[in-house]
Structures are given as C-alpha cells and as structure tokens.
Amino acid sequence: LKMSWLWLYLPLHLLMATCLCHSIKAPTSSSQQSFKSNLFDFYHSSILADGKETTIHLLKDIPKRYYFVLEEGRALAPFSITVTPCDVPIEWSILVYKPPPGKAAPGDHDTQEVSKSHKASSLVSTIFNYKGNSVETYMGMSSHSALYLLEFLSTERDTHITVYLTSDTTSGHLYPELPGDPRIDVIGIGHTTVTLAWKHSPSVLQHSEGIQYCLLVNEKHNYKSLCAAETAIRSSGMKLPTTVALSLSPYLLEPQQVMILSNSELSIINKVSSGEVRQVCMGTKNTYTVPNLSPNTQYYFDVFIVNLLTNASAAYTGTFARTLEEPEPKVTELKDGKVVHVVLDGKKQKFYSLQYQARHKKIHFTFQLCRGQIRVHITRNGRTVASENLSGLRYFSLKGKLLDIYSVQLRSTEESNSSVKVLASPHFHKPLFPLLPESLKIKSFSKLRTCRSVTIAWLGTQEESKYCVYRKRIEEGEIWRELQSADRCSGPESRHKSEKVLCKYFYDLNLQRAVTTETIKGLEAGTLYLFDVYLFGPSGIPVRYHSKVVKTRKKC
C-alpha cells in the first residue's frame, strides 16, 4: 500500500463523504451506522502503515479508526490484515466505501448530486467483522477506487492490540508459519514433570537460524498470543529485571535459559496468574520436559514460534495437564524414648513422615539437626500445632489428650542430603539429650594466640556434664567444606584418636559464671586448626558445638 499519494486521493473521497452524509439511507448494521456518522472524521483518523506491525491503544467504549486506500493504477490489489488482541476481547470491523460510477473528480460534485442519492446505500458496506480475543487475519482483493476503514472497540476495559497490514503477499511473511496441525501433545506426565511435543513450524525448516520456540507455563489459563501473555504479566504490577525490559520476548534469552517469575519476587503475580509463570526458549527443539512442577497441580502450556529478526510470533494451540499426586510417604512409628535417625536425599526423597500415639497428655518432641536444612511440620489429629525450620537442637512440648495421634512430616529444603534425629517421649520422661547452654558457639581470644598455642572458651550449664575438645589441622581451601559437611550429630567416635585434646567436667549454678576456657598447646606456627567441643549428658548422647577455625601466629 503506497501511502505517499494518499493526500492527492483523499480530497475526492472527502467530497464524496460530504454528499453521502446527506443522502445515505439508514444502514442495516451498527458498524455501517458508525461509519456513516463519522465520515467527517477522516482528518481525525490515522493512516494505517503498510508492511509494518502497528500497536494501537484502545480506551474503553471509545472506538478508534484507521483507514487506507490501495495503490493507484492497479485494477485489483491483494491485501491482508492481521489483528492480535493483547488482553481482553475486542470488536473490530472492515468497512469499504466505493464511489458511484462516474464520480471521478471533485469538480463533478454538483452534477452527480441527484443521481447519487438512490445509489448511496450501496456505497458503504461491511466486508468483515469479528468479536473475540483470538488472532484473526482477513485477506482480500480490491480495486484502486476503494477506501477502507478499520474500526476497533473495547467494551471491557482499556487495552491495546497490534495490527499488521500488507499489500505484498508474495515476498514472505512477517509472522512465522504454523504447521497444519498446531496442537501441543502431552506425551508424558510425572509427579513434578510434564513432557510436551509439537510439530515443526515450516518457518523452522526454512529459516532455522532466525526462528526459535518459546514455551510459557502458568497455572491460570492458556494465552492465544505472546502479546497477551506479556500484557497479563505486566498488569500484575511486577518488576522485571532491567535486562529484559518488561518483555517476555526471547531476544536476551539463551537456549535452555529459564526466566522464572516467582511468588516471592513478584508479590502481585498471584492476582493475575494464580502462581508462577515461566518462559523457556529451547531453540528449534520441538520436545521439552518441564521440570520442578508441583504435584497434583494443573498447568497450562503454550508454545510460540518466534521470529527473532522481526520479534513477530505465532501461537500453537495451547494445552493443559495435571501432574500426578505425590505418593504417600512411608510412615515410621515413633516409640517412647527411642531415637530415630532420619536421612533425606534432597534429590529423590524430599519428605519423611513419622507417627506417634500419645499415652500421656503431655508430649515432648526433640529434634537434633545433623546436616543440611530441614523443615518440620507437626499435626495433632490432623490440625497443625507446630511448623518451622530446624536449627541445632529443638524441643517442642505439647499438651493434648490421651491417644491423640501426632504426625511429624520432615521436608528437606535443599538438594543435598539432610539428616535429623527425632525423639518422642512423655513430658516427665528423663531427657536423653543433655541440657544445653544459651549458645553453642566457641570463642577464641586473638590476644592470647601465640605461635604454639590457642585459647578457646565455651558456655556450660547448671548441670554437671562432660566436655571433650578435639582439634584438626586443615588447609585454607578446606575451611568451607569442613564447616558445611560436618555431621552435627556425630560424636567423638567418628574422630581420629590423635585429634583428641582433653575431656573435662564442669558446671556452675550461676549461669553467668558457667564459662570455661582451655589453652591448647603444642601447635605449629602459622597453621589453621579446626576445634570442636562435644557435650555429653546423662544418657551419653553427645551434642556438638559449632566448629571454630583458628590460625596460630606466624611470628612471636
């Protein structure tokens, strides 16, 4: 559509429109009536550009109009119009005005006035109208004497759309092509995964370098265009990283890179998508397994074929699937006074359940976190009574009724292995774990360090207990590994005999004075040492203080 000559063409039609407004019969459709009542508004309408995707913003209940004419000198001109709603359903129509026979110049206005009145009703016609939120394309042929008007209306709320008009239907497509069968097939469903497959786009087979597939996953509904998906996420009020500039387009995404818009980062996203929205761009692969989904949850999947050069996209027919229910975890019975050691594989076994039937009204639960990160959830007869992340040694004293059923669910919160010791007993039962001080930290005194010795201190309790000190020489690169991999439930039996320094008993009824110090001698200058203190209670079960790394002085 060559628009440069339009200003020469326009006055002719404006004169025709002026006469038409006085003599046209009542149209049979609302679109024709709207066209008639606004023929004077051409000066206030916009010209629709040819060969370019145009973004149009619509205000609620206020129609917006664009017009175009076809190239002069051609008897018939093919053209196509593609409209993509980016949010709510819209109404849009294409109307055409053809001048009556013999209306060839503005100067003929007076002589044609009478003969035109009985033909005016046939000059304006609606050739296409649509209401909805799907991507629609109209293809047509017309003579050079036709004037076209596109009218767009949103009745729900303010929104925006994209419109692509072209008269060049032979030199390629702005939008990537969809296959004959654009459906997405669900070929596998697991507890936390869904595997999808779809037929290749002809555009991928022809121009694989500039085309790639992008998958959108959410928990609300399918989207009929990438534009609609972007609008829904933007309307949530979230803040995307500046590198993606509020766009889900894959310009800045590498193959297999995932951008996750999570609940914690985007606090308002739940109002729009009822959960998490993910976009994965996987190049030209037409199969993909979506990982890390929640069990027993319905997800909606949309595949878009995206032209990276033009940023235009086409949507496959979306699908949905529900992940399988998580299998019931094995339940272990807890017995009075018996310690259960639970090990969770963060990659395979995320949950572990224990059950305890109360034989007394007061129940005492003890958890000693040995390694990793674990969250505990305790219910009594199906109602939650405690839920928190474990740290060190944790006690829960609960009061209920005889024969109450307590369920304890342990969940690993990281992918590495985690372990914990669990004890359930009546409240008056003699504790197996020792009485703990306010802090399990070991303190070192920098001013008391020498080339051959280190002085450390730790808190005690009001109960006489046994404390054993161990040391281990380590290298600079081993500090993080030693501190992270330490099993806080293991006792001195796991240590080499040469690492033992001493054992001692002490207590103080005044907690402010329940502090002891020890100077460890016979060390090497400029050397790193890892120090551990083990506390033993009446039952002999040890509790390990937090390890302390100290380096002796190089020169004295």
From TrEMBL:
- Annotated SUPFAM superfamilies: Fibronectin type III
PROSITE patterns, per the entry: FN3 (PS50853)
Q: Which UniProt keywords apply?
A: Glycoprotein, Neurogenesis, Repeat, Secreted, Signal
Question: Which one Pfam family would you cite for this protein?
Answer: NDNF_C
Q: Which Gene3D superfamilies match?
A: Immunoglobulins
User: Does the record carry Glycoprotein as a key word?
Assistant: yes
The listed locations are: Secreted
Query: Signal peptide span per the entry?
Result: 1-21
Protein name in the entry: Protein NDNF
